[in-house]
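Before the break, one more example. Copy the sequence into your notebook; we will annotate it together after we see the structure.
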Amino acid sequence: MSNSIAIIYHSGFGHTKTVAESVAKGANGVEGIAAKLFNVEDIGENYDQFDHFDAIIMGAPTYMGDISAQMKAFMDASAGKWFASAWRDKIAAGFTNAGNPSGDKLRSLQTIQGFAMQHGMIWVGYDEKAGVNPETGEVDGHNLGGHWLGLATQSSNEDASITPDETEHSTARYFGKRVAEATIRWNK
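Here is what the structure looks like once it is written out:
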């Protein structure tokens, strides 16, 4: 039996998209998982497609202290799904990217979590110690900001092919794997 994960993201300059791709890579590396990426700008009115996914991971850049307007518009337009409880008991998780180490990323993660809770979803956060590589146990730059509510990465203003750096992408792959494993456990 295969479990499916929708990774819904917005990316203004490509940085958050590359993080979404790393989350998907981590999730798809788990046997029995099929993760698919969706850019909020391409969804239109087609919210029904998410009814059949076992999990939804949402990601957006942090702009001016919260998620991007495009992700907020997606959330607001899901009111019909809320009314029908269509996404109730799905696994949910969130991620954000910003140029600063903090940059109010926690607030963005709280916005995404609050949205998931409104829909009655089951939230999965990040579980490893700040600064520790979850694959090796070595101290390095993984989850350096200490965000356990979800995944929070940092990029500079350079091209998205350069930043976020590999440590951030490794953290994102681990996060995708964690959510995938939680999805399988929840759907046994």
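Residues 166-186 form the longest helix (21 residues). The first strand starts at residue 3 and ends at 9. Try to locate both features in your own notes.
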